[in-house]
Amino acid sequence: MFRNNLKFCIPKNVDISRGKHTSKLDAIREKLREGPGFADFVSEDRPKDWNDYEGKLKREKGERDRLRLPPWLKTTIPTGSKFSEIKKQLRTLKLSTVCEEARCPNIGECWSGGKHGTSTATIMLMGDTCTRGCMFCSVKTSRTPPPLDPDEPKNTAYAINQWGLGYIVLTSVDRDDLPDGGSSHIAETVKEIKRQNKDILVECLVPDFRGSRANVERVALSGLDVFAHNVETVERLTPFVRDPRAGYRQTLKVLETAKEINPDLITKTSIMLGLGETDEQIEQTMKDLRNVGVDCLTLGQYMQPTKKHLKVYEYVTPAKFKQWEEKGNELGFLYTASGPLVRSSYRAGEFFITSLLKDRKAKSL
What we know:
alpha/beta, 8-stranded mixed beta sheet, two-stranded parallel sheet, globular
């Protein structure tokens, strides 16, 4: 039952660019219905008894004990030759991945390729040390991280070319120590990837660059296909969850600015649930995102990476995630990926975006 609740849906009667019904979009939907959904990307051995789970899902006021992990969030330890091969290559090229640094629960499935055999990894640019200290994130922090590796753009492009992927996700740490926030480095990486393979689709999950329009513009016009920046949580919780330099309204402005500068970009963001937000606050956040033109939304369960980080306030059930998926479609997002183990980069969502972008490209020829 859990697997059925992870499939992604596409809103009806929404044009890719204008919000109107098109027969071409219907054709894409039909193609996607025949292709893989979220259920196809979830391991077969994950528990499906969540309806019968009687464990505690929410901490009471003043309670300090950590909640026990419910069955639908238990994953297998990553192993396998593909997993080891990717890890070895990343170390050789001195590349970091958010998969490792953020302790993503899907790392085994993505790196090993799952039952479909397609390995993916989200490369984290500008090193493994961030200048910010968000309370949900396990990435290392420092006011003075090591200098940028000038070879990283070429090494990243080389690794991606070796993997033979059609869609790649790049993310990065925040680098407030750099005058341009690292925007030039990110833009150069995108350009290098496109130089080596013009057909590959590139998604960048970028910092907010402290709201700098010039830095947002540099990335938005670099040749990338998907501009992603995560809102992370609802407005009320933002000061407690994110670094003080990361504002809720600033995030909305960054997403709005990217779309304004390059209307052809697909914009994307992600919300973590289980931090103490209310249903009304989640819905308001979704409406705020649609109001600034965000196209794609993912919602996933917050999971405490270490004892030093924020505790989980609530484990949200797959049924509740399903409701948010339906609400996202109702609000008009191109797609809403919603499930306990969904993260901002998730392969079923990438499958949808790939189909959408290929259709756009075909129209422009």
